[in-house]
Amino acid sequence: MKPEINELELLEGLARNDRKAVETLYKMNYSMVQAFILNNNGTTDDARDIFQEAMIVLFEKTKDGSLALNCQIKTYVYSVCRRLWLKRLQQLQRFGTPVESMEEIIPVEEELEDHDRKNEAFGVMEKALNHLGEPCKSLLEAYYIQKKQMFEIADSFGYTNADNAKNQKYKCLMRLKKLFFAQYKNAD
Amino acid sequence: MQTEMNEITILDAAERYLRGEMTSEEKTAFDQLRQSNPEVDQLLVEHSFFLQELERYGTTRDVKHTLHEVHNQLLQDGAIKEENLTTGAKVVNMWKRYKRTITIAASIAGITALTVSGMMLLVAPRGNNSDVVELGKKFQQIEQKQKQQDRQINTIKSKISPDASIKAGGSAFLINIKGYLITNAHVVRNAKEIFATNNKGQDFKVIVVKKDEALDIAILKIEDEDFKNFTSIPYGIRKSSTDIAEPIFTLGFPRNEIVYGEGYLSAKTGFNGDTLSCQIAVAANPGNSGGPVFNRNGEIIGMLSTKESQAEGVVFAVQSKYIIQAINQLKKDDTTLNELKLPVSTSLKGLDKIQQVKKIQDYVFMIKVY
Question: I need a surface site. Which of A65, A149, B206, B238 has the fewest CB within 10 A?
């Protein structure tokens, strides 16, 4: 089944972090995932974690433009959640009843390998930024993530001019890179 | 210094190259440099990868944050429900899952019951000289004298009658938008009148709804015409237990102002192996009792209650799952409490500490007991 037009719009909305789109995706899919997790030895907390992780997978894929969705979003989300939950159960060594499947599923193993790498990079980056301390952390976030202009940043952080702020920004960035790659390479 | 400046110049060039901000001559020169100098080439590739990762981190974090907010909002609107399985299936399921555990637990429980009753006989008479101090504030006699002087100076009318003197105090936090607070039972012991003060210094009259001395939990409700219901609560209460070494932070009122403390979970049980509580390492003082203990996601993992008198930095907190249990039990006993719905999930995940505390501080109260 081909995805309908509004499904594509929803995905584009998710890639833009559009709240309305996220809400719609949530309403369409959450109950199904929750029922699946609860039926398979999980709690509502687990359901929330797994569902949100699947949403992140969907977000990453759409943003990279690598999502070749030839099924409904629902099927994709269900397949991802199922795979993630199986893996979690294995980690927790909570075997027991096999996970039974009531819905159509598609293979997603390869996609999740990519997600694992990104998820790990996310963790390493979060740790590195926290390690960096202030004002470096806020300075880098303002420039590279919130995409603020250098003169605005100089103003709000109290640097005398944009050049000084820029120099400081590069010094912070070099430290962050060092912290990031030390962890990231170890993790490989 | 010189090399650092050089590195900055190269980085700046690399970023401008990647953003396409170079003039065509600059670009040709830089391309040549890349060809002749493999180190520069390597740096550019690495830097481009790194900036991608950094940007991805930012956007992913924003989406995670939106997901949390949406989840909480939809729950509140009733658009999604955290339902449980139908009871029959659940019990069967639980039985299948925990058959072995239950059998073992039952036999251990039997042995423990015998041991505990034996132990109680040994321990009970020790009474007052306890090894654990309750962290409720005890105000001294001096305070009363000061009060008399204050009375002459203070012309502003307070809700609190001027004849009253503070007997004890502690902290509390909101667990429901309708003004339900939770604190330690020992904070409100022997209370005639109780007031909760928010971070802005506003006093609200509160009443004790329920008290469980064994769990050291008291549920209070703000009954004051000045109190307006909150629209939402930013934190959730964690249902499962927390791992050792997980970083935690606390907010409380050891003085007349909100105070932040940071530490980690040091043990999964409390004083003398008490399984209802856990041990945390954090600076705590009288007045911290009843204050919330958060993990880094801004979920409540416990309520600060006591500290060991013989050692510094050994602090105990009631585990959050027992808070939830106690409240559910109370709801069963008293149907008027059915409106007490607990906050389930946090909207603070992924925020830095400063932002988290800013969002939380309006929901933590100082308790004054008269």
Answer: A65
